Amino acid sequence: MDIQLSSCGTMANDPQGMIINGVLASEKSWPWMGMLKSERGLCGAVLISERWALTAAHCLPNVFDLTFGQRDRARWSNGTQLRSADIEMAHPEYDRKKMADIALIKLNESIEVTDSVHPICLPGPNMTYSACYVTGWGRNSLKSESSSRFLKQIKVNIMPQNACAYKWKLDGVHITKKHLCLKIDEPWPHPGLCSGDSGSPLSCKSCDRYYVIALGEFVETGCQRKYYPDVFTRVFPYMDWIRKTIKIYGLD
Predict the structure, then answer these.
(1) Whole-number pLDDT of residue 161
(2) Where do the domains of the chain lie, and which CATH numbers do they carry?
C-alpha cells in the first residue's frame, strides 16, 4: 500500500540558513510541521499523509488538537488547518524507558493539500542527505518559561552512533541503532531541542525532497547539552509498523 503523495517532501520556500538559537521559519516552509496539544502539553508532529501524522509516544494520550500550516502560535496564518485526533496509537514496544518512542495519529478528517500544508516523505534504507533541519515551537532559551511564539528552524549535523552511545552510557542511558543523535557544536549553548520540541521532525533533504528521518525524543536536563547530545527516535526502523497500522485503520 502506497501511503505517500507524489508531491511529498516539497515546499515553496526552502530554508536559508524548545529550538534553542534557531531562526524564524518563513511562510510556507515546513508544510508538514504540526503543532500538537495534549494533556502532556505542547509537542511537535509531522504530517505523513493526508490523514496521518507521527509524533513521540510520550506526547500521548488525550490529544486535544493538531494545527498545520501555522507559524505564529498566537494567531492563525492564511491556510492554517485545525484537526483533532480520531485514533492515537503509540508503538506497542514503547515503555517510557527511551525505547520505541514513536506514535501514529489518525486525524479526524483529511487535510487539504496546499502549498502551506502537505506531507513529508517517509525514509527508505541507506539514504544520503545534503542537509538536515529541526523545527519546533519549544523554549527559546534555558531560562525561558514559555514556548516560542514563532516556529523556528535550525540546521544540524548528525553525531556518529558510537560516540553518542558512549556519552549517554556515562549517564546510564542505553542508546541503540534505533536512536539518532545531534552533533554537539561550539560555541555553547549549542542549538537544539528543548521543552515543547518532543515529537518534532528531523527533516533531511535528498534529491530535492525532504524526508522525516527521526522525531525529537529527549535532551540533557535543562536543555544544556554541555555533555550529552539531543536524542531522536529514528523513523525507518518502525516503517513496517507504520504501514501495517495505516493498512489496518485505513489510509482515508
Answers:
(1) 86
(2) 31-119+237-249 (2.40.10.10), 131-236 (2.40.10.10)
